[in-house]
Amino acid sequence: MRERLSVSTGYGVAELVVHGDADLVGKTLGNSGLRERDITVLTLHRGTVVIPNPYPHHVLESEDRLLCFGKLEEMRSMIPARPKRRARVKKLPKQPIHSD
């Protein structure tokens, strides 16, 4: 999510990207659940095509970019959690290492 504008407390304009494994792929805007989360899609960017004020019957595709207005916390909650990286530091052995 890229926040574009903060309008009032908790609300703003942000860009969301629909990734290939997202639940939204293949759903229409009307069935996406965005309106129920208080998020309005202002513009749909698909490749080089820009669809301003898209209708609810538009089907979302992978890599669509949605310029949205709504609750910033709701938009942030739609971002999948990143997997935690493994620690790069190795643990010390339990037995002391003796040098000869």
Describe it.
- By secondary structure, the protein is mostly beta strands.
- The protein has a single domain (2-77), classed as Alpha-Beta Plaits.
- Helix content is 6%, strand content 33%.
- It is built from 1 helix and 5 strands.
- It has one helix spanning 72-77, and strands at 2-8, 11-17, 39-46, 49-52, 65-71.
- A 5-stranded antiparallel beta sheet has the order 1-2-5-3-4.
- Strand 3 (39-46) and strand 4 (49-52) form a beta hairpin.
- The protein is elongated.
What string gives the helices and strands in order? EEEEEH
| CATH architectural grouping | 2-Layer Sandwich
Radius of gyration: 21 Å
Q: Tell me the number of helical segments per DSSP (H or I, 4 or more residues long).
A: 1
Helix-strand category: mainly beta
Strands of the widest sheet, in order across it, are 1-2-5-3-4
Mean model confidence by pLDDT: 84
Short account of what is shown:
With about 100 residues, the protein is mostly beta strands.
